[in-house]
Amino acid sequence: MNKHVENIQSDNAVALYAMNAGEGPHSYVQNSTYQKGALDVAKAILEEEIATKLDIKTPNGYYGIADFGCSTGHNSFPAMQIIIQALNKKHKHHQTSLPKTPEFYVFFNDVVSNDFNTLFSSLPPNDHDYHAIVVPGDFHGRLLPESSLHFAYSSWSLQWLTEVPKAVADRNSPAWNKGQILYTQDEKEVYEAYLSQYGKDIESFMEARAVEMVDGGLMALLVPAVPAVWNPKTEYTVPCDVNLNLGSCLMDMAKEGRMSETKIDTFNIPYYVPTPPQLKEILERSNDSFTIERMEILNNTAGKHTVGTINARAAFFRAVHERLLADHFGSEIIDELFDRYMNKLAASPVFLNPDNDKTIVILAVLKRKARRH
After folding, report:
1. Is 216 helix (H, G, I), strand (E, B) or coil?
2. In angstroms, how far is CA 369 from the centroid of its own chain?
3. Which contacts (CB < 8 Å, 24+ apart) does range 126-130 have?
4. Exposed, middle or buried: residue 206 (CB in 10 Å: 0-12, 13-18, 19+)?
5. Which of 98, 104, 215, 340 could be bridged to 370 by S-S, CB 3.0 to 4.6 A?
6. Is residue 39 predicted with pLDDT exceeding 80?
7. What is the pLDDT of residue 10?
8. From CA 199, how far away is CA 189, in angstroms rounded?
9. pLDDT > 90? residue 117
10. CA distances from 314 to 28, 244, 310, 336, 341 (A)
11. 3-state helix, strand, coil in the chain (%, to 5)
12. How far apart are CA 359 and CA 273, in angstroms?
C-alpha cells in the first residue's frame, strides 16, 4: 500500500474521533463539564506561567495561539480568554519596551469532521478580542506555518491515538485484544502495545509543535491520566469504566444474539491514558526542542462530581464515544447500549460514587528552546 493511501485511511479513521455535534441532549456541548473542571483548576497556573515564563517576542506584531482539540468550543472559549487576558496583562507590564498591543490570532483545531459550525455559531459575539481561524486536521502532524505560534494549548485531547495498535487487532498476535474494547493493565501485551503507540503519537505531536512555535513560546497540556497505583476493587478510572461496564454491555448483547462476538473482537477504542511517570518520560524525549517548566496533578474533584449521577455519566460517555460505536456496530444499537450501561452502573456501588474515580489530570507546561543557528 502506498503512503498516500495509508494517509487517507488514517485521516478517515481519525475523523471518527469527533465528539457529538450540535447542542442537543447527547452533544458534547451539553456533556463536557467533567473536562471543564480541569480548566477551572488550571486557570491560576496558566496565568502564573505566562507572567513568569513566556518570552515576550512579537516580531510580526501579533500573538498566535492555538487550541489543539477544540471540539465545539464550549470549553475552548474560556481557555482562550484566560490565555489572552494573561498575555495582555504581561504585554501592558512591558509596554515601555514593546510596541503597541498586538493582535491576537486564535487557531481552533480539531479533526476534519468536527462540528465547526457549532463552534463558530457559539463564538461570543462581544466577548472576544481575537481573530478566530479554523485549522482542521490531525494535530499529530504539521498544521501551521513555521515559527507562527506563541502559545499552544491542548486539553483532554492527547489521549487519542492516530490508530489502534496493529498488534491489538491481529488475532495471530499475543497482543490480540479478544473480547475487550480497550487495554487493561492485566493484559501485558495489549497494554504495552497501546503504550508504545501513545509514545509514538505524543512524539509526533511534539515534533510538529517544535516547528510551529517561536523560540521562548509556551505550551500547556492538560492530559487525562491514571495513578501509577490504585485499587481496582474499590476505585476506578475512565479506562476501567470503559472496559468493565461499556465493554461488558456489548458482550452481553453478543451473548443474547444482538451482534456477533467477532464484531466486538474487531473493535478497540483508540486512546490511551498514561500514568504521570509515563507521560514525563515521553515528554522528556522532546528535550532537544522543549524544556518542561512545570508538571503537576490537578485536583479535578469538582469536575468529577458533575457526572455523579447515572444519567450524567452515561451522557458523558455517549458524547465522547458515540461516533466510534455507531460506525462499527450501527447507530440502531446506541440507545440500548447506553440503557444497559446505566443499569450496569446502578448495580455497582463503586461506580456510583464519583469520589471513587481516580482518573487524574496532569498539567504540563513546556517552553520552546532557542533554535540552534
Report:
1. strand
2. 25
3. 127/81, 128/77, 128/80, 128/81, 129/84, 129/104, 130/65, 130/80, 130/84, 130/103, 130/104, 130/105, 130/106
4. buried
5. 215
6. yes
7. 45
8. 15
9. yes
10. 12, 14, 6, 12, 7
11. 45, 15, 40
12. 9
Output the CATH code of domain 3-368.
Answer: 3.40.50.150
pLDDT at position 193? 97
245: helix, coil or strand?
helix
Give the separation between CA 110 and CA 130, rounded to whole angstroms: 19
Alpha-carbon dihedral sign for residues 134, 140, 142, 148: positive
The string of pLDDT tens digits covering residues 148-176 is 999 999 999 999 999 999 999 999 999 99
> According to the model, what pLDDT value does residue 310 have?
92
Max CA pair span of the chain: 73
Single-letter residue type at 155: S
Average pLDDT, the chain: 89
Decide: residue 356, CB within 10 A, 0-12 exposed, 13-18 middle, 19+ buried: middle
Domain boundaries, the chain: 3-368
Can you tell me which residue has the cell 492516530?
162
pTM over 0.90: yes
Tell me which DSSP letter residue 195 carries.
H
Q: Which amino acid is at 235?
A: E
The order of strands in the sheet holding 213-225 is 131-136, 103-110, 62-68, 149-155, 213-225, 360-368, 290-298
Is residue 57 scored above 70 in pLDDT?
no
Residue 257 φ/ψ region, left for φ over 0, alpha for ψ in the -120 to 50 degree band, beta for the rest: left
Q: Which stretches does DSSP call E strand in the chain?
A: 62-68, 103-110, 131-136, 149-155, 213-225, 290-298, 360-368
3 pLDDT higher than 90: no
Confidence bin at 344 (pLDDT 50/70/90): very high
